């Protein structure tokens, strides 16, 4: 009989979908007779959403302050209190902060980018993606480990059960070194890439900020909008509102033109549901070709101006 502890993630006063996925996964991997406890540092009135858990350790957080230091310490305290066999945390920006903090305090291991967990022998077999999605690592987990689980490993619908789990009120740990100043939402004055029919998306393969202009010309000719992978956003070449992927936006356009994007799992997470994916990459082995409906092995800097001319002339 095993026990799983699930870290509940919230944003702006709502429980994030990843939490429901984790609850579903926790139920499955602990099996019959297993116990699932949820740790929720969140505003009051939400524990009935966690009906898939047997028990909730709840600490009030009326302003939904996000302080990884406090959450990490609180998770470590919960581990001490519950003595779980397995801890499930989302492989999200929040989850990664909290998992590493808690693992160092609890003195246990943590595995990032977990895509699959199955019971095996006295423990679990855990699959995680490494090297930007190029390889899958398998680990046998037989002692306390914090798993940072990717979206898609569980079923959010199955894990979102209304109910009355036993609620035990706890106090969240103090953050000694950090102060919460507020939640800043992204600039909403930019175009909404989730509502476009055609996206021309650029990746690191664009090479230089100055090259974006030729892509914008193509987008204009197609009546499309330019979006991007994370490195382009991190470089400050386009605003954050244009980022597609795990830590950006999930898009579902009719056509997604991926230019110089390798196809890392975090990017695919945001665009794999597009009706038609066309990828252009100089590397014929780029993983983006695994999800593309059409693929072109070509230098985007040569192809894009020629394509723009064709579209303009059509
Ligand atoms: C928690 C977390 C969240 C993340 N969230 C996101 C996210 O939301 N969105 C996201 O995109 N990434 C995200 N990432 C990063 C992700 O792992 C990858 O690092 C990123 O997607 C890679 O971007 P890229 O494909 O543009 O760059 P690279 O992986 O460097 O690929 C560049 C590609 O361009 C090709 N290329 C180079 N020159 C040319 C040329 N002239 N013509 C044609 N092709 C060329 C190369 O062959 C290569 O395939 C996240 C990572 C983590 C850990």
TrEMBL record:
Binds 1 FAD per dimer. One of its GO terms (molecular function) is electron transfer activity. The lineage of its organism: Bacteria, Bacillati, Bacillota, Bacilli, Bacillales. It comes from Kyrpidia spormannii. Keywords: FAD, Flavoprotein. FAD binds at residues 204, 229-230, 243-247, 260-267, 281, 299-300. Signal peptide: none annotated. PANTHER family: ELECTRON TRANSFER FLAVOPROTEIN ALPHA, ELECTRON TRANSFER FLAVOPROTEIN SUBUNIT ALPHA, MITOCHONDRIAL. GO terms for biological process: fatty acid beta-oxidation using acyl-CoA dehydrogenase. This is Electron transfer flavoprotein subunit alpha/FixB family protein. Its cofactor is FAD. Residues 4-181 form the Electron transfer flavoprotein alpha/beta-subunit N-terminal domain. Belongs to the ETF alpha-subunit/FixB family.
């Amino acid at each position: 009989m095993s026990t799983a502890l699930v870290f509940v993630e919230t944003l702006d006063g709502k429980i994030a979908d990843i939490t429901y996925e984790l609850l579903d996964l926790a139920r499955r991997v602990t099996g019959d007779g297993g116990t699932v406890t949820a740790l929720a540092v969140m505003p009051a009135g939400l524990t009935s959403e966690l009906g898939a858990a047997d028990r909730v350790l709840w600490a009030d957080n009326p302003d939904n302050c996000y302080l990884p230091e406090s959450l990490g310490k609180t998770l470590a305290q919960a581990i001490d209190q519950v003595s779980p066999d397995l801890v499930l945390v989302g492989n999200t920006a929040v989850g990664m902060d909290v998992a590493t903090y808690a693992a160092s305090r609890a003195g246990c291991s943590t595995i990032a980018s977990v895509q699959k967990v199955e019971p095996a022998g006295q423990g679990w077999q855990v699959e995680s993606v490494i090297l930007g999605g190029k390889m899958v690592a398998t680990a046998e987990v037989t002692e306390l480990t914090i798993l940072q689980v990717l979206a898609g490993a569980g079923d959010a619908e199955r894990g979102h059960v209304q109910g009355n789990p036993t609620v035990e009120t706890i106090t969240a740990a103090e953050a000694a070194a950090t102060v919460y100043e507020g939640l800043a939402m992204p600039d909403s004055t930019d175009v909404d890439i989730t509502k476009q029919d055609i996206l021309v998306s650029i990746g690191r393969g664009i090479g230089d900020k100055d090259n974006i202009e030729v892509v914008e010309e193509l987008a204009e000719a197609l009546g499309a909008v330019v979006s991007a992978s994370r490195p382009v956003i991190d470089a400050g070449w386009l605003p954050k509102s244009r980022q597609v992927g795990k830590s950006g936006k999930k898009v579902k356009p009719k056509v997604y033109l991926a230019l110089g994007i390798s196809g890392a799992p975090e990017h695919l997470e945001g665009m794999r549901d597009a009706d038609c994916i066309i990828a252009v990459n100089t590397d014929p082995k780029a993983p983006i070709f695994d999800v593309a409906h059409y693929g072109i092995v070509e230098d985007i800097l040569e192809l894009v101006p020629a394509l723009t001319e064709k579209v303009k002339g059509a």
